[in-house]
Here is the input.
Amino acid sequence: MKMNHHSQETKLNRRQFIAAGVGMAASLAGAAEGRWKMWLSTSSVMFVKLSVEQFCERAAKLGFEAVDIWGPLFKCTHLDDIAARLGGDGLKRLLAKNKLKLCAFSVYPDRYPQYAELLGATGGGVAIRGSEKPCKPEELTARMKEFLEKLKPQAELAEKHNSYLAIENHGHALLDSIDSLKAFTDLNKHPRLGIALAPYHIQAGKMSVEDAIAACGKQLLFFYAWQHGKGTEQLPGHGPTDFTPWLAALAKIGYARYVNPFMHGELEPDEMTAAVAKSRQYMLDCYAKVVRG
Here is the structure.
């Protein structure tokens, strides 16, 4: 039987094309797997007028993966309500119902021991608190050593309850500058202790957020997507800051925890929802630029 050479060539070309396509798909899948992933969370303190159930439902509808639940500060009652009414098992059920993860408990100024057992009962997570009063530059190393020594019992409590303790930088505080972040990370040896980085305060001090991220390195446990501004201009995509370099800096250190669009200030829930929705989309747009390289 005579074979049609053109037909054979076409079949071979098709096979080659399909094989090449399969190879390319595998290659792209591998590249995607190796690509830095951004996980987004949102904070309950921005929705103080909602119950914790309403907040979780809204966070899920907005498309966030996780939530940061606040203790009694800025009129927020969510964490105390959970402790009194739901407990760890109840909170786990609420999160599962809304397909959410627990990102953090914010327990300012220093209320972690009060909520440590509840955080552990929920499955563990990050507890965020503040540092101490500021010091003179020449006192920084000694004061940071002293502070870390004071934190040991809380770090051990975090280990007991499968959790982590993150110290937030703040203006006019011990942890308030890039030098203080470096002092913290150089001196801290506890695997359950790290930093919650608030760029708002870094920008307020006229410092580089990218340098601050690099200083935190592997000890960065929580990142506020929060710029220095007033009202909704604190949120990503509302104020003037380009967040793309910040995300690129997070990718560079291999940050594997949550990025949390944030602001202080009380808005009506629907107004805050619209503002946060815009921020979330903006963060996704910035992320797309980072992963495209």
Summary: The radius of gyration is 23 Å.
